Amino acid sequence: MSYNEMILQTKAVFGELPDDVLPSLEQVIVLRSRVEDHAIPFADFSVWTGKQRIRLRQMKLKRWTFGEDGTAERISAPSLTTFHDWCKSSTIYKYALAMIGASTITDLEAYRAQIEHLYSIYGDHYGSFVTGADELLRSSRISKFWPVGDKTKWGVAFRAAAADYSFLNAQVNCNVFQVTRDNNTSQPGAKSSLHSTPHSTWWSNCGPQLTLGLRRLRERAISSAFPTKPVHLAILVAPALMVGSTCA
């Protein structure tokens, strides 16, 4: 099926769609090539946009800037700037995978709902940790859930990944805890940032589970006469239920 036929078929099923939510010919070719090669259909959302070439050109220009003294300074290439960017890239990615027959829209929306749920908890302040967890899963861990050899089952993998909420939650929790701990230790005499910052979502959501989990582990260790093993914070956090979409 040609690219134009894919577009027509997609619009026939989902109605008239704006051009900025549909993948470009180049995006479809790259993604289909990866699927045909039995590789992970990963897309870098920092450039996976409706105007991909413009985005790439902006990234190249932003690699260098000029300091106050007029000297050139190298800077990091920009990644996702807002969660809204992630939502737009995710929509294009969703239609691209559906167009090449690698997934269904429903499967991808189930996965997307989990990312949106994490964002609804942590918000803009920790939004980069949420999108970072998504990128790690889509670039590597997703292969764990893929029925090897079946090019049409990547949607199954994404739905299974959505059910594996603990992994995504663990990635965000680790980063948030490290940041709040570092902030706390870098300000002597200040109150713990876990309690005092306006973005104390980590502690308010995970603190009670963490305290209860540590207490149970300590009681278990005493009763069995074995020392308690180090505990990863994320395993003490109960998976949360999915909520409505936060993408506008």
UniProtKB/TrEMBL annotation:
- State the protein's name: Uncharacterized protein
Origin species? Perkinsus chesapeaki (Clam parasite)
